[in-house]
Amino acid sequence: MSSYFHYDLQSLRIFIVVAEVGSLTKASERTNITLGAVSKRIADLERSTGCALLLRQPRGVELTAAGKGLLAHARQVVERVNRMANEMSDYATGVRGHVRMWANTSAVVQFLPRDVRTFLTDNPSVKISLEERLSGDIVAAVRSGDADIGIFADNVPAPDIEKAVYRRDKLVLLVPNDHPLAAHEGISFVDTLNFEYVGLNEGSSLLARLLAAAFSAERTLKVRIQVSSFDGICRMIEQGLGIGVLPEAAVRNEILAAGLHQVRLFDEWADRTLFIGTRSLDALSPEASRLFKFMTDRNDP
Prior knowledge:
alpha/beta, Arc Repressor Mutant, subunit A, D-Maltodextrin-Binding Protein, domain 2, 3 domains
């Protein structure tokens, strides 16, 4: 009989801790389980897998190739079990539908807080689990079923996904008030490329859009600093560390009051579309289908 039936959830949890701290002793302290019990759990996993999972070193342990593979699977299993427990708890307290939605930073910062609040006001028995992720990861999660609904940028390929327009937004240039470009009301992106930029981290659809535009103009985008949020971009620009491009709706009044100035971009690609997508509209739960329709109705004609 397959050893599949001998995998124990608690053993997987302990194995994850051992992998994270790199020590059986430290794992014992963190989990409040005796060192002997931790060692036995690991031995049981190694017997079930038929593989050595750890290399014992003088100052701790290291994962073998098999151990690294098991760690990735174990994290997924534990995460899914935790998700199941949370959803069951929600049902027990009156929630009648749970929707997993992933969205990119532009959607989260500009539109989703108000839209989600409005939807939940009219649908109080629905729970939305919202995660902020990169557009490429969102598309992958929708395709795999890890997300019921995804909101992502228009420059990210989305094969095998049913999608519709969620919102449209406009990108603007943000510079310090004393910057040479602050004298312009509008400008072409290519005319900004002599200056250093503050950009989002690798993998973001916005950074990809800027890099593609620079490449098309046969120029180089000089990225001096990369951060993980629009707020981080603004703070870096405030300190004179570069200029940046971000959605117009993300430029709040308090940002401009802090000594920054926004400049309109003439380029066509500065007008963006955010898509909402799902693997199959017909396969959505009634609650997710209702949310999808609500979100597509947010699009201004």
